[in-house]
Amino acid sequence: MEEDNGNSNSSITVDTTKWDRSVWLMKCPLIVSKSWQSQAASSSSSSSSSDSPQVGKVVVSVDPLRSDDSSALQFTMEMGGNDVGNMPKSYSLNMFQDFVPMCVLAETGQGRVTMEGKVEHKFDMTPHTRNMEEYRKMCRERTNKSMIKNRQIQVIDNDRGVNMRPMPGMMGMIASSSKDKKKAAPVKGPEVKRTRRDRGELEDIMFKLFERQPNWTLKQLVQETDQPAQFLKEILNELCVYNKRGTNQGTYELKPEYKKSAEDTGAE
């Protein structure tokens, strides 16, 4: 594989010796990903340990009466390490039967690219049923922390205020252009100025909103969260169902598996 950077002699070689190795692709919660990254970083910075830390283990349960049926397999992820804190330690791995064929590529610090293998199984990692209440409590605490805004005071070095007062001759220009400013106001693009929040933080805010009321329109959620509508739709498709008919037509509401969390929080 060659990359044209203006130099015909520049090229990147991909090591494909591991192309037939089977790997698993797993989508995990944000807090689990941060925990694993933290453990890996602390292990790499420690000189006393040369082995990679065990961040978790996969437990496979097989029904002996349906041993030939792949759908009868049940996968569970048990978290390892001692710094998991209040995070649930057991998760269910829901395996996808059909997915687009994929492979895994890795790049070293020297720019060397290797093919680590092909994806054999794809999983969606969710909290185990017995740890669901613990996970909801952790999400509520994270939501409350995210709602606290840390205000900062910035000191302006230029105490003369040159950039803060109008220069000579500016007063007439401001008065004459006041009508133009009023006309230009509707052209403002609110969607362009919205910046995306962290996905985990936005999910927590969404749960908080649905605790306040069960049904929301997309326009209301955009105003409440100040997020781009397209990005908000991606989150809504995962957490909510869209009512196409009935008294709540045109609104979103939480999926049944998330409603209990909102009800428990309201009761508290």
UniProtKB/TrEMBL annotation:
Residues 196-259 form the TFIIF beta subunit HTH domain. Belongs to the TFIIF beta subunit family. GO terms for biological process: transcription initiation at RNA polymerase II promoter. One of its GO terms (cellular component) is transcription factor TFIIF complex. It is found in: Nucleus. This is Transcription initiation factor IIF subunit beta. It comes from Anisodus tanguticus. Keywords: DNA-binding, Nucleus, Transcription, Transcription regulation. Its main location: nucleus. The keyword Transport does not apply. InterPro entries: TFIIF_beta (IPR003196), TFIIF_beta_HTH (IPR040450), TFIIF_beta_N (IPR040504), TFIIF_interaction (IPR011039), WH-like_DNA-bd_sf (IPR036388), WH_DNA-bd_sf (IPR036390). The keyword Protein transport does not apply. One of its GO terms (molecular function) is DNA binding. Residues 21-118 form the TFIIF beta subunit N-terminal domain. Residues 175-195 are annotated as: Disordered.
